[in-house]
Amino acid sequence: MRLFQKKNPQTPERPVPAHIAIIMDGNGRWAKKRGLPRTAGHKAGAETFRRIANYAKSIGLKYLTVYAFSTENWKRSEEEVSAIMELLERYLREAIADMDKNQVRFCFFGDLSRLSPQLQQEAALAAERSKKYAGVQVNFCLNYGGRDEILRAARRFARQCVDGQAVPEELTQAQFSDLLYSAGVPDPDLIIRPSGEIRTSNFLLWQSAYSEYYFTDTLWPDFTARDLEKAIASYNHRSRRYGGVKK
Ligand code: FPP
Questions:
Q1: pLDDT tens digits for 11-36?
Q2: How far apart are CA 141 and CA 120, in angstroms?
Q3: Model pTM?
Q4: Which atom of ligand 1 is found nearest the CA of 41?
Q5: Rounded to whole angstroms, how far apart are CA atoms 50 and 39?
Q6: Which atom of ligand 1 is nearest to 29's Cα?
Q7: Active-site annotation, residues
Q8: Which residue has a Cα nearest atom 1 of ligand 1?
Q9: Given a cut of 70, is residue 2 above it in pLDDT?
Q10: pLDDT tens digit sequence for 88-97
Q11: Which residue has the higher pLDDT, 146 or 12?
Q12: Strands 19-23 and 105-109
């Protein structure tokens, strides 16, 4: 079901933001409420992701970035970490098989080297094979942390300076952005966090400088296209001034 009409994002009355990012939070609490193991919550969360990604595509969203596994999530039990990794593997296997039908472009933000060789291979394959599609781009944040991303970019820049390829005083914000995992992707217009938590949790720290936030108590597995629609409607009532004044 498509609740929003696909519109030119420039259309003033109901523009769809170009880039929405989501912290998929609340899977554990969703499972607990039902007396289920936390892993059941992640399974339900993966299904919600499928539905929301389809809906995002149908309304003409250009970029959807999701926080699937953070640099801090390794602190969870081995069982839970494995369950999340298996869900991701399964998702990517299916996405690769159905690629021509779905036409989704995949990109990965994070240090993938700590993931299983299998998952790394699937991520690389999904990214490589989907490069040609022009519709929605899904950015999976995997073993991703905003501080880690900034630190890596700083190290890369320092290395360029040491090698005589860059000059510290000449570094611009645009150049620094290009050193991040998200190079080439516009900053998120809207960041959604379900589950009632009101914090950023190390998500897109550099890129969110002027993002609009939307918080809702709905737990991620219960999040529907209508919730996304509400978030976009809320976004459309905001006045984005980027530190300036309204014209
Ligand atoms: C946060 O909820 C969620 C995660 C750390 C994992 C998110 C992973 C998925 C939705 C599955 C990934 C697979 C695909 C295909 C996207 P939480 O566990 O912290 O919830 P809680 O705060 O209620 O405990």
A1: 445 679 999 999 999 999 999 999 99
A2: 13
A3: 0.94
A4: 18
A5: 17
A6: 23
A7: 25, 73
A8: 25
A9: no
A10: 999 999 999 9
A11: 146
A12: unpaired
